Amino acid sequence: MENMIIQMINQFGYIGIILLIALENIFPPIPSEVILTFGGFLTTYTRLNIWGVILAATIGSVVGAIVLYMVGRFLNREKLLHLVDGKVGRWLHFNREDVEGALDWFSSKGTKAVFFCRCIPILRSLISIPAGMAGMAMGPFMIMTVTGTIIWNVVLVHLGAFAGASWGIITEYMHTYKNWTILALAVIAAVLILIFIRRRHKKKDLSSRSDGLA
Fold it and tell me: Which residues contact 98 (CB under 8 A, 6 or more apart)?
């Protein structure tokens, strides 16, 4: 994977960076840290310059984010609630009220989530989907996406330029950061699932008690 990324940037320069970062946003397993740090390293001995690499990476990120946002818009509120009301919702033990509450929360608080998640591996790509599903306005979505993405790109490109030929060390640290992030997300997801299950059991207990009293 890394060799393919390096070859593409070497051959196509800024265009290669745009394409790779766009793909990285759509397919999160592609490592943006390799693209950005190697791009930063190239600025030390080629015609590429730091702000050109940052601009190319930002364009690619925005293109990828828009694609996933539109996927979210296709899987809109009505379609999602339809799935929840059907077999999928029963199998996952989701109900309409829980999903509507999550979508309403994202509609009101989601702009901050979009901004902060742009600097978190995996989530920096996937956050576009719930933004689209919640019907977030394109204006705030673009502002938060561009702002958060520029911060991520500026940091990694400059680190790659600073490290020079040792840019691979930066990617190793970023891989560690990504692994810890994935672990943290898994723990958070497990905790949220447990909380969700406990609340569902409490609701069932209360409803059964009220039925017994009736």
Answer: 196
Question: Crossing angle for the helix pair 138-163 and 167-213, nearest 10 degrees?
Answer: 140
* Calpha distance 159→170 (Å, rounded): 7
Question: Tokens 């059964």 sit at which residue?
Answer: 208
Q: 25 near 70, Cβ under 8 Å?
A: no
Structure token digits, residue 78: 């009505």
Q: For the segment 6-52, what is each residue's pLDDT rounded down to a tens digit?
A: 788 888 889 999 998 998 888 766 677 788 888 888 888 888 899 99
Helix, strand or coil, per DSSP, at residue 171: helix
Tell me which DSSP letter residue 30 carries: S
And the tokens for 22? Answer: 């766009």
Q: What CA–CA distances, in Å, run from 2 to 31, 45, 54, 107, 163?
A: 8, 20, 19, 37, 17
| Contact (Cβ atoms closer than 8 angstroms) between residue 77 and residue 67 | no
